[in-house]
Specification:
alpha+beta, 6 helices, about 180 residues
Length: about 180
């Protein structure tokens, strides 16, 4: 369909597009949450269960604070309310690393992208959240190995006099061999 045909498209075609969009959002492995401007979760896809341990229906109708660690809730609610009121963003909205709170109270590291949509005078916020626990574990192990190698390399350092003598001896040996 050409873009100019979209305005004259029958209403059932929009429903097909909506169905395709809904299926795509439901099948993604990232958790997707849509919230109203008062922080009420209006929609949660099936992946919220894998990421947070909540069935989608358990989150819908609850506040976003349900998936935010207790110690971060007040700051989140203040920033969210300020954004709704002023449009001011206090953090980047693309692939920011934040902590989420699971149904069992544990915390999960997330990569989160936020989007905003206004339709029919109704402001909506979309959060796309990816569990980055595995990546964080790998980064932690890599940091530990790097620290270990750094400590080992400082123990192996030789006195500077020894280094110079070795270089001089090496040069003499190479010159005699020629």
């Amino acid at each position: 369909m050409k873009p100019s045909d979209r305005n004259s498209a029958p209403s059932d075609e929009v429903t097909v597009e909506d169905a395709v969009f809904r299926r795509l959002v439901q099948q993604t492995t990232d958790a997707v949450v849509i919230a109203a401007n008062d922080g009420t979760i209006l929609f949660a896809n099936q992946s919220v269960e894998d990421v947070f341990g909540y069935a989608p229906g358990e989150l819908e109708g609850r506040q976003l604070s349900a998936i935010i660690p207790e110690r971060l809730r007040q700051r989140h609610q203040a920033a969210f309310a300020r954004h709704v009121r002023t449009g001011e963003r206090t953090i980047p909205w693309n692939a920011i690393e934040l902590l989420g709170r699971c149904a069992d109270g544990t915390e999960v590291p997330l990569s989160v992208s936020f989007h905003e949509s206004t339709e029919a005078d109704s402001q909506r916020f979309i959060g796309v959240m990816r569990d980055i626990s595995d990546r964080k574990r790998i980064e932690h192990r890599l940091d530990e190995k790097t620290d270990h190698l750094t400590k080992c390399s400082t123990r192996v350092r030789l006195p500077s006099q020894f280094d110079r003598r070795t270089v001089k001896f090496s040069r003499r040996t190479n010159a005699q061999a020629s």
